[in-house]
């Protein structure tokens, strides 16, 4: 394996470790996020090292800058995950007017449940939606052959559903009832 591949693997490993502990299990390494999900960077690095996962501030900065999905945000001496938390946080995102349609990537085995119940946040606080089909396709492909659903966001917004958009462009809403979903034709 060449050095570039090794560096990329290390970046992915650090990113996944950070996601796990900044989005889902901060207490596992002794961290306490503030109400908006922020933690001091020095505290994060020390907690990770104390639990056997060491990285430098330079590595952290590289992970944040190199992440194509902008999963993390740094504000001065603090860091947080941009969205996707299963722990209670208030990201402080103002309500936003969505485009006419947003998109959700999923897989065929989930379609029956989605037809019956709509999109639910599952283990997250919000349903995550994409602004374009391409991104939704990539999201769905993480779990198998992707199926992209269109969400009539304009009608949802008109009917009083609230949307937020995260710092990395992911659209968030509490749930999407089935009546606002457009399913692809069955083949």
Automatic annotation (TrEMBL):
Top EC group: transferase
Transmembrane segments: none
Xref: InterPro entries: Ptrans_KptA/Tpt1, RNA_2'-PTrans_C, RNA_2'-PTrans_KptA, RNA_2'-PTrans_N
A Pfam family: PTS_2-RNA
Enzyme nomenclature, EC number: 2.7.1.-
GO MF annotation list: NAD+ poly-ADP-ribosyltransferase activity; tRNA 2'-phosphotransferase activity
Gene Ontology annotations of biological process type: tRNA splicing, via endonucleolytic cleavage and ligation
SUPFAM superfamilies linked to this entry: ADP-ribosylation
Keyword Transferase: yes
The entry's keywords: NAD, Transferase
Domain of life where this protein originates: Bacteria
Entry similarity comment: Belongs to the KptA/TPT1 family.
Annotated function: Removes the 2'-phosphate from RNA via an intermediate in which the phosphate is ADP-ribosylated by NAD followed by a presumed transesterification to release the RNA and generate ADP-ribose 1''-2''-cyclic phosphate (APPR>P). May function as an ADP-ribosylase.
Record-given protein name: Probable RNA 2'-phosphotransferase
Species: Streptomyces asoensis
Lineage, opening ranks: Bacteria, Bacillati, Actinomycetota, Actinomycetes, Kitasatosporales
